[in-house]
Every structure is written in C-alpha cells, then in structure tokens.
Amino acid sequence: MSLDRKGGFRSRSAKASAPRAVPVGAEKQRREVRDLGVDKPREVAFEVLDRVRTGAAYANLVLPKLLNREKLEGRDAAFATEITYGTLRTQGLLDAVIESAARRGSAQIDPEVLDVLRLGAYQVLFTRVEDHAAVDTSVKMVGGLKKFQATGFSNAVMRNITRSSPEQWLKRLEPEGEIAAIAFRTAHPEWIAKSFARVLPVDELETALRADSQRPVVHLVARPGEISAEELALITGGEEGRYSPYAVYLDGGDPGEIEPVKQGLAAVQDEGSQLIARALVEAPVEGTDHGRWLDLCAGPGGKAALIGALARMDRARVDAVEISDHRARLIERSVRDLPVRVHVGDGRTIALGNDYDRALVDAPCSGLGALRRRPEARWRKRESEIEQLNSLQYELLESAISHVRPGGVIIYSTCSPDLRETRGIVDRALQHLPVEELPAAPLIPGMSDTGEARSVQMWPHRHGTDAMFFSVLRKR
C-alpha cells in the first residue's frame, strides 16, 4: 500500500500487489534460512516476509517451523516473532515512511530490498533497537542478497528514517479525515476502517482497530460429555471462560502439548465460535426437535465437533457438509466417535431433504473479524472480494432455509463485522425468504454490547473473542 495525494492509503495495481508465483523447484534450491551476514532472528524474519510475499504463505504457520528448525528460543525467538509479525501488521504504514524517505514509490523498489527496509523501518519506529543497529543490519542484509548496487540506496533510506522520531513521522504522514487518520495510526487499509466505522461509534473505532494488533489469548473448548471447563482449567492452569460454559483461557504455551488436547477431550477454538455452535443447539424451535441437525459449511470442523458432542448428549444426529475433500477429511478427524456424518458437496445444491430441525450456515466470508490471527491478512484482502462473497453467502442461507422444516431454526454466522456480510444478508433473507428473526442475545447470557439489532456482533476489544456475528432465523 502507499499514500494518495491526500495521505490516505491507496492500493497498488493488481500487477504490483499480487503475490508473485514461486518458480518450480525454487523452494528446494534456496536454503531454509538464507545466510545474509546478520543475526539469525533477523534472517528468519526476512525469510518469513519473503515467503509471505512470493508464495502467499501464512506467517503464523511458517514462522514457528523456522524457529524450531533454527533452534531459536527465549529472547531470540521473541525478537524474531516481534519484528516478523510487527512488520507484516504495519506494512502499509512502513511503506508510506519508506516512500517518503526514499522519494520514490514502493513499487519502484526491488521487492527483496523493500522487505529488508520494512524490517529495518519497523525496528526504528516500533522497537527499542538502536538506530545504528537497525541501519547497519539492513545494509548488511541487502549485501547478503547480492544486491550490491542497492546497498548505498538502502543506507540512505534507513538514515533518512532515523533522522525523524516515530512521532514526527506519524504526524507528518497522517492523512486528512478522521477515519483515514485512524486507519493510518493503527496500520489498516482505509476501507477496513470505514467498514468497522459503519458498525462502531467513531470514538471506539481506534480501540477496535488496535485490538487487531494485539496477541489473542488462546481459547480452549472442553468437549461436553468428556471433560468440564472447570476440570480443563485445573489441568492446564487456565481460567474458565466468561461466556461459553466450555471455554478455558490460556496465557500462552503450545496447546498441542496439553494432554486433554492430545486425547481429544479438548481443542483450540475461539470462544465466539463456541457460542455460535451452542446457540444452534439452544435456539427455540417450534414443535418437537427430532434431532436432525445440519452444518452446511462445516470445514475445518471445529463447530461441527462441538455441535456433535452436544448432539450425542441430546441423542441427535448431525449432517456436516463441506465442498473440499481436504477439509472434509479434517472434519472427519475432528468428529470421530461423534454422531456426525460428513458429506462432500456444494452446500448450495446438495440434496439432503427438507426436514432438519436446526441448521448452521457459518458462511465463507472476508475474515475481517479475525485479523489479529494473521498479521499479513489486512494487506492481502481486497474490498472487491466482499461483493463476490455476498452472492455465495445468500445462496447458502437460502439453501439452509430450504432444508429446514417449518418451525425449525437457522443460525447464520460470519467471522466479519462488515454490514454487507452480516445484516445485509440477513435483511435480504427476511425480505424475500420465509423466515422471521429471533433475538440472539438471550442465547449468550452475560454478554452485553452486542449491537442494537436482534443479531449479535462480538468484538475483540469488547468481549475478547473474534469479531463474530450471528443471527437466529426461524422458518415460518
């Protein structure tokens, strides 16, 4: 991203912004972590940035593997993590500073050199690393990349950045307009800030956006019928959740090493997702619940597993639909020994009958509600994608309604607060489809500030969950 004439973030052309394809065999030819002549944490950080840019990799998956492979622990691992995730989160802001210091657009800078400059600029602006160390290591890294003609340029850019304080840079480059300025200060594309501002008061917007850059607390789910949240908290040393009766909060550590998780008695799942799965089971139906439940967009299986555990206790059965073979296999692993049958197919067209008592549509969405989990995500997403998703979201909801009997309930949910993906879809269904909306808040006792509509909108800064949305519909 870069700044337009008014200071707001603008998108580069599709050609400039799209991840470049990695040549066949290139990953095998290069070292796992290149020797750039600097300390290992910075080399690991650069390697992650390079893979994210060239291969559309996810930093939260790549970085832990490289830290383990390079045997980085303690302060070294913490430093590598900070500069990697921090650089990815603040990329748009860093590019604006680099462009000003370089007096040229970021698209005109060699991509590998730009990654080095981003790492260096982040250290100067957002860490306690000494300026001279950030400058020297950046120039060494450019030389280690054999970009010898760019070493002088990189040195000049980094020194220009150090000549002003972080506060001076932010003040100098802050764009006009309240929302644009908030987007810049919190390192978000302006379109995402505007999306959030349609749902939140402006005086709360900056707090909400800053929450996207805070490390989320690990949430565990205790599988009902296997282990209680109280028992799981005692075993793990965690804290029982505020809203979900199955949630436990952990401050840190590797949840995969926890014994109840290894045994399948518990799993990692955001508390908001737990609440939505529980809402499906608790929502009031008219007539008798015959135990026919449907999860129409079930991959990768977290909600299906919780719903299945509750179904086992209620002697119900769940049909879980997933269009992807790979994700369907993930569901099958998550729901083994539970009364869940996995179907591979398109939820919009799959034929499963029309007598379900309950159906969940956890629709594919932009994922704007989970930006804190993937530091690079905010700069990869494009607003134009939402319109394409809207058609899919509505068609999936329409299909779910057709599969539910009169008097049955449908939960529509997304991990996004964008009105086009939330109320926009629900209001359209209320206008054109045979459903009525029920109050959703009573299904989450103790949770307040969930919005003025009948639906529920959760927020990281208010509730500690992802920004999950759900609405409860009942078929007329």
Explain this structure.
By secondary structure, the chain is an alpha/beta fold. The chain is built from 22 helices and 14 strands. The protein has helices spanning 14-17, 26-29, 40-55, 59-69, 74-89, 91-102, 111-126, 131-144, 151-162, 166-173, 178-185, 190-197, 202-211, 229-236, 259-262, 271-282, 302-314, 325-334, 377-380, 384-403, 423-432, 460-463; strands spanning 2-3, 9-10, 218-222, 239-240, 247-250, 266-268, 292-295, 317-322, 340-344, 356-362, 404-414, 435-438, 456-457, 469-475. Strands 7, 8, 9, 10, 11, 12, 13 and 14 form an eight-stranded mixed β-sheet that branches. Strands 4-5-3-6 form a four-stranded antiparallel β-sheet. A two-stranded antiparallel ribbon has the order 1-2. Strand 1 (2-3) and strand 2 (9-10) form a beta hairpin. Helix 8 runs antiparallel to helix 9 (151-162), helix 11 packs parallel to helix 13 (202-211) and helix 16 (271-282) runs parallel beside helix 17. The protein starts with a strand and ends with a strand.
Topology of helices and strands:
Layout lengths: L1 E2 L5 E2 L3 H4 L8 H4 L10 H16 L3 H11 L4 H16 L1 H12 L8 H16 L4 H14 L6 H12 L3 H8 L4 H8 L4 H8 L4 H10 L6 E5 L6 H8 L2 E2 L6 E4 L8 H4 L3 E3 L2 H12 L9 E4 L6 H13 L2 E6 L2 H10 L5 E5 L11 E7 L14 H4 L3 H20 E11 L8 H10 L2 E4 L17 E2 L2 H4 L5 E7 L1
Parallel strand pairs: 7-8, 7-10, 8-9, 10-11
Antiparallel strand pairs: 1-2, 3-5, 3-6, 4-5, 11-14, 12-14, 13-14
Helix pairs in contact: 3-4, 3-5, 3-7, 4-5, 5-7, 6-7, 6-9, 7-8, 7-9, 8-9, 11-12, 11-13, 16-17, 20-21
Radius of gyration using CA atoms only? 24 Å
Number of strands: 14
The helicity comes to 40-55%
Low-confidence stretches: 1-30
How would you sum up the major sheet?
8 strands, mixed
Q: What is the residue-averaged pLDDT? A: 93
